Amino acid sequence: MKRPALWNTRWVRIGLAVLVALVLVLAPWNLDPATNQALARIGVFAVAVLGLNVIMGYTGQVSLGQIFFLGLGAYVTAYGVNEGWNVALVFVLAVLIPGVAGYVVALAAARLGGLAIAMVTIALPIIGVPLAKRLADWTGGSQGTSARFTSAPDWFGSDLDDIWQYYIVLAIAAVVFVLVTNLVRGKFGRALAIVKENEAVASSMGISPYRYKVMAFTIAAMIGGVSGFLYMVVVQYTSPETLAFHHSISLLASMVIGGAGSIIGSLIGGAYYVLVPNVTNEIDATLTSLIQGAILLIVLFVLPGGIASLPRVVRRLARKRGTQSPTQQ
Fold first, then answer.
1. Residues 6 or more apart in contact with residue 62 via CB below 8 angstroms
2. Which whole-number Å values give the CA distances from 266 to 44, 239, 272, in the listed order?
3. What share of the chain is helix, strand, coil (3-state, %, to 5)?
4. Angle at the Cα of 320 (from 319 to 326), degrees rounded to 5?
5. Neighbouring-strand partners of residue 237
6. Which of 218, 220, 316, 329 could pair covalently with 54 via S-S, beta carbons 3.0-4.6 A apart?
7. How far apart are CA 184 and CA 160, in angstroms?
8. Taking the model in full, what pTM does it have?
9. Are the CB atoms for 43 and 231 separated by under 8 Å?
């Protein structure tokens, strides 16, 4: 009887998960504020990429407007904080309002396919930017709006605000990732996979492609709202630039490079979104777009499944080499 690989044993996986959790919880106490800020931002955009993965990676719908839901969640959060609303209420509204907007868009967009749905979602940031500028009473207009979200409690230490923000991001992002992981690995996720593979087969099995595509789009919009809430926790400022279309393209590139249809890929995508532009700017700011485009092309050609697929590719190559060796001998 073949023994399972060490990685596939349950206790090893649980042990690794506990170890990673401990590292994430304890790390900020030994890092400088700039690094903690970068980690918190990675958490924010990992959630944003996760939302995009739900709609594109797991359902196969093309969405180029995910940044709109992040921006909408950020504006709702900023408005609620400035009005002095309860933080829990602000969080709920920052999730629900983008969710309702996503549901309305999905009712029309889910009937479309291919380039048509891409065109619909492109319109979201294109409409969102001028709308944010015109609704100055709520959004601050072109100047944007800031919000002092929260500060560390007295017992935590007033000099540790960056750690306080980091822990808010870590806690909420962990809950979102666990929920989405359970969602895509359960019955709902299997239905999404069938819809993505072949809508005609899904219909023949009693699965409504339209219904599941609307639900996936709405869930992705709600996750976008969560990332907008976290964005305000960390950055504490938003403007029409937050909704700009090029940010949507950057999110899409991050998802592809991290790994479409992959939970780990969403984390890698979040790290790519935050860290790589800083590195390329350090090399040469005028070559940032060129370098990032080259990275995207290399990953697409070498690892079509994204960086998250690297271990799987290595194992396949190792098995292939193992089966060829006896023949060669």
1. 56, 114, 115, 117, 118, 121
2. 11, 25, 10
3. 80, 0, 15
4. 95
5. 146
6. 220
7. 36
8. 0.89
9. no
